[in-house]
Amino acid sequence: MQHKKKKGGVTIKDIAMEAGISYATVSRALNNRPGVKKATRSRVLEVSKRLGYYPNAAARSLVTSQTRALALVIPDITNPFFPEVARGVEETVSKADYNVFLCNTNWDGHKELSFLALFESRRIDGLILASSNDDGAIAEKFAQTGVPLVVISSFERDIGCHQVIVDNVWGGYLAGRHLLEHGYDRIAFIGGLAGARATTERFSGFEKALAGAGLKADPGLCLYGSFTWESGYRNALKLLALERRPNAIFAANDLLAMGIMQAADELGLSISDDLALIGFDDIGFASYPRICLTTIAQPKKKLGEAAAEIILADLGSERKEAARKIVLTPELVIRRSCGCY
Amino acid sequence: MQHKKKKGGVTIKDIAMEAGISYATVSRALNNRPGVKKATRSRVLEVSKRLGYYPNAAARSLVTSQTRALALVIPDITNPFFPEVARGVEETVSKADYNVFLCNTNWDGHKELSFLALFESRRIDGLILASSNDDGAIAEKFAQTGVPLVVISSFERDIGCHQVIVDNVWGGYLAGRHLLEHGYDRIAFIGGLAGARATTERFSGFEKALAGAGLKADPGLCLYGSFTWESGYRNALKLLALERRPNAIFAANDLLAMGIMQAADELGLSISDDLALIGFDDIGFASYPRICLTTIAQPKKKLGEAAAEIILADLGSERKEAARKIVLTPELVIRRSCGCY
DNA sequence: AACAATTTTGTAAACGTTTACAAAACAGAT
DNA sequence: ATCTGTTTTGTAAACGTTTACAAAATTGTT
Questions:
Q1: Hey, which end of chain A has fewer CB within 10 Å, N or C?
Q2: For A5-52, what is each residue's pLDDT tens digit?
């Protein structure tokens, strides 16, 4: 008859007992603290290995008040963009022995906010936030917790925390300019969430490009919804049913673009011949031959890595770090959908 | 001049002080333990809210020896199959106030094993494992830790832990049978990792279907690699360069199938007319109009949910639960790629 | 008003670490 | 052998909870 719970594993005291020394010394040996005799240290190491000792993270946290855990908040694990970012984060921080709680919000501000309790309770050491909410209210709440925070989305007002973003305006500009160069005169814009920075910034770059050509965006050709392909599909259907339908569309992300493709396909319209299309993100599937989506590529993994490095640096330093802001530059990658070939 | 670290937040003692009672009572009130006066309880709640109290998870873990943290190990966060599973897990366990560490192994057995230290150290309460390694060696090591473990992949030998799997053999059979019904006589198989259960089981179902028609799988038409689309692409290229090339292919997952499509496209071969194709998983993109991949659909989210529920049940019960095994049934979903339309 | 029974509260120990400080062991010099 | 200085080790407190047990307060009964 065995107990279900081993009720705690091997502790530092067991090692001390076995090695015939005090547990303070064991702690020192295990943590490579100075002032412990070589012979003792190796004996401790030997015993600890033999007994199968693993330090109890909770106990350690309690006294050091750091958990070596981070949280990464993303709005949609189902959008290939975010797993890529997550990978960048995870790989970087794991090298420094940090682990990450992946928090998926499903674009739900309430759920996002509800993670606050998690962070507070678990006393995570740092937080990387890709907010679904763009007025910065939630981010500000997170910032108030005092843990190092880096946001990988931008906000209207300055939150005063680290920031790693890609230059959405520039990306939008690139897209607009490229479409213009092709001579399209009725260029539509399909955004994600209305008011979301990813939408508005990309749009403003797009507008800038139009302005450069002496044009203005036609409000009737600018539709919004959410960052899903269903939304792109529905809005494209509307746009393409128009009397004078657009001959080019800039989509605020690739998922939207794929929805647009779908709509065009169904209507028998040829993407690139009848309708030029540019997306944003460069998710893996964009390069797929059957898709060949021209898009504004974001350095996804890099984004995660940069955010992780900032957190790590902040965690490593004693003083409070000044808020850093890193702006990554997106690039136009030309495939078929824009009608270039 | 402010200190960087707040060095611990509001504690139970602060509340006790403020409310003028002992901290044991505060603890009881906060945890809804019986035997605390209604008035006291509400006062505690009020004070705790006013002070912004969050229980310290580490301290709590230390005494209760449970962390309310689970780990989910997956081999490839970049394969849309797994985020879907992850979502099922996360949504289910979060309702019971558990959080999850997402551990991505990149199909690397070493990395997978290295997570062991994490689990031991963090004393996670439970573990859901989609192993990249199929002989069960790693899973067995995980099982030895004594924490409730549910694997969502199958192994050659019986590991003696909970298991939630989909019937790969049946899935393979469905695929083979469907292809056979179409009259294809040279059916190839492109697997993922050779020897991986996902590969071998799906293949064995496929063989069974062939056998039912008095046929045998042609070893020359069965290629292996990894579960990525690049691998599918490369192997398809080989297959399609054959003198007597196959007229149908069963791919062990959708990513592979998409690679195969790509190869066919490049060679000017029509999927469905010149080459029938069936995948496995039913990732989101399979239903995309430009893909229209006929595939064996796995209940991805369900898989995660079921695994999570088992863990939760195990965690909830006092005695050691008998190992449960849940087998989910995959389904054939017919789209274009198999030549049905 | 006193007692028993019950409800509510408080005290203290425990969980497994880290770390300041004190104590002991050792080395080298006399 | 003794002393000094250094290295190594040990003791004890602390981190923030939970919880068994003891103590106190409250209630009901007579």
A1: N
A2: 345 689 999 999 999 999 999 999 999 998 899 999 999 999 999 999
Per residue in B243-292, pLDDT (tens digit) is 999 999 999 999 999 999 999 999 999 998 999 999 999 999 999 988 99
Count the neighbouring beta carbons within 10 Å of the beta carbon of residue A150: 24
Give me the residue from A78, A87, A288 closest to B84, CB to CB: A78
Would you state the pLDDT for residue A319? Answer: 73
| Cβ burial, residue A241 (10 Å; 0-12/13-18/19+) | exposed
Residues of B in contact with A288 (CB under 8 A): 258, 262
Which residues contact residue A72 at a Cβ distance below 8 angstroms, ignoring those fewer than 6 apart? Answer: A86, A89, A90, A100, A101, A102, A103, A127, A128, A129, A130
Nucleotides of D under 7 A from a protein CB: 7-12, 14-20
Pairing assessment for the beta strands B276-281 and B187-190 based on DSSP bridges: unpaired
- pLDDT of A5 reads 38
Is B7's Cβ below 8 Å from some Cβ in A?
yes
Classify burial at A37, counting beta carbons within 10 Å of its beta carbon; exposed 0-12, middle 13-18, buried 19 or more: exposed
Q: Which three-class secondary structure string do you get for B77-112?
A: CCCCHHHHHHHHHHHHHHHCCCEEEEEECCCCHHHH
* Cα–Cα distance list, A280 to A198, A273, A295 (Å): 10, 20, 5
- Farthest-apart Cα atoms in chain A, separation: 88
- In angstroms, the separation between the Cα of residue B229 and the nearest Cα of chain A is 10
How distant is the Cα of A206 from the closest Cα of chain B, in angstroms?
A: 28
DSSP conformational letter for A287: G
Which phi and psi (to 5°) does residue B46 adopt?
Answer: -65, -50
Cβ atoms of A67 and A98 within 8 Å: the answer is no
Q: Is the pLDDT of residue A4 over 60?
A: no
Q: Which residue, chain included where needed, has tokens 């393979």?
A: B172
pTM of the complete model? 0.92
CA A143 distance to own-chain centroid: 17
